[in-house]
Design a protein that fits this description.
Multidrug-efflux Transporter Regulator, Chain: A, Domain 2; 2 domains; four-stranded mixed sheet
Length: 158
């Protein structure tokens, strides 16, 4: 839809200033359809935004800050654009994010334990002693031991 009376619309620079988002980001959001119902074109093909775009951009920014992807946000906006509140969908997405974060925390705690164990058994080696046999004995000794134990287990089960 082409707009002839532009006084009730915002130009992209105004939207950028009000939303604290770069113009390039706003263009990208329009390109992927996140701003579809709030952006129009002037007779000279300039982007013109309904004032409601600012609330939409605030929702996008907040959703991203909470870890939602642009695809997830787009799905939520589509529900909204159909005249419904997407609160149930938002809740489900946030619950999934909590589960993902919990798994990440568990993985990071395991990694921290492994690193602390490695550091607690750290040995200083002289380069002349082992440089031709290994890159870093502290790392490779552990890896070689694990590989050796894996091979032993394989032989036992065969």
């Amino acid at each position: 839809m082409t707009i002839t009376d532009t006084k009730n619309f915002l130009k992209i620079g105004e939207v950028s200033t009000s939303s604290d988002l770069p113009i390039k980001t706003i263009r990208y959001y329009e390109e992927i359809g996140l701003l579809t119902p709030t952006v129009h074109r002037s007779e000279t093909n300039y982007r013109l935004f309904e004032p409601t775009v600012l609330g939409r951009l605030a929702f996008i920014k907040r959703s991203q800050a909470l870890g939602l992807s642009l695809r997830e946000i787009q799905d939520l906006l589509m529900v909204h654009d159909q005249g419904q509140l997407p609160c149930d969908e938002v809740k489900q997405n946030l619950q999934k994010k909590v589960q993902q974060i919990t798994k990440q925390i568990e993985s990071l705690q395991l990694l921290r334990s492994e690193l602390q164990g490695l550091l607690s058994g750290w040995h200083d080696y002289s380069s002349e002693d082992v440089a031709d046999q290994t890159i870093c004995p502290n790392l490779q000794t552990e890896a070689m031991a694990e590989r050796f134990h894996f091979c032993e287990r394989e032989e036992i089960t065969v």
